[in-house]
Amino acid sequence: MSKYILPELAYGYSALEPHISGKVMELHHGKHHAAYVKNANAAIERLDEARAGSDFTRLAALEKALAFNLSGHVLHSLFWRNLGPRAGGRPDGKLAQAIDHDFGAFDKFRAQFTEVAATIMGSGWAALVWEPLGQRLLVTQIYDHQSNLSQSGVPLLVLDAWEHAYYSQYENRKNEFFEAVWNLWNWGDIAARFDTARKLDMQLPGTST
Ligand code: MN
To answer: Which end of the chain is more exposed for a tag (fewer CB within 10 A), N or C?
Structure first.
């Protein structure tokens, strides 16, 4: 049976300093993300056992655990790839054009994305997604790891707004963290995801013009 695995980082835990401390990265990747991987695998195993034993009494809880932990694994894997040392700045090419088209300007997009992270009630994420029905980019809020996201959105850029992502470094000044990550976005990675996502055809009616 295939199992989800914790991906190695392409850079060292301290490589994103001073914007994200090595201690935060080590705990976030090595403990928090690792727990989502472990618990996603555990949920799959429990579902296999439930099917084998025809015992579905805990099915709803298992489905919820799977959605939470697998989504957590996906989002953290994306987040690590979205970040990079010696990064930041702005996108160029087709992604830059699409951001201008769908948000008016890069600065407008940046303001909305940062505010979406800052106004999460509880734990969640900000995400830039490609929405294939409307053939457009959207900024969305994700609650926990899996709620409030439209089912068609393909995440391109995600920002962890859980307290564990910043609290030991920034304490209650979370807006400083949400600004600091703009020095770390790896636009090459995000543009490559955009190119791949745009090939997705939902085979559904889209929008009228
Ligand atoms: Mn996290």
So the answer is: C
List the shell of residues around ion ligand 1, using CB closer than 5 Å.
160, 162
Q: Kindly report the pTM of this predicted structure.
A: 0.96
Return the CATH superfamily for domain 22-82: Fe,Mn superoxide dismutase (SOD) domain (1.10.287.990)
As a whole number of angstroms, the distance between CA 139 and CA 148 comes to: 12
For ligand 1, the distance from its centroid to the CA atom of residue 48, given in whole angstroms, is 27
In the reported structure, the alpha carbon of residue 205 is separated from the centroid of ligand 1 by a whole-number distance in angstroms of 35
Same fold, 22-82 and 93-197: no
The 10s digit of each residue's pLDDT in 118-154 is 999 999 999 999 999 999 999 999 999 999 988 999 9
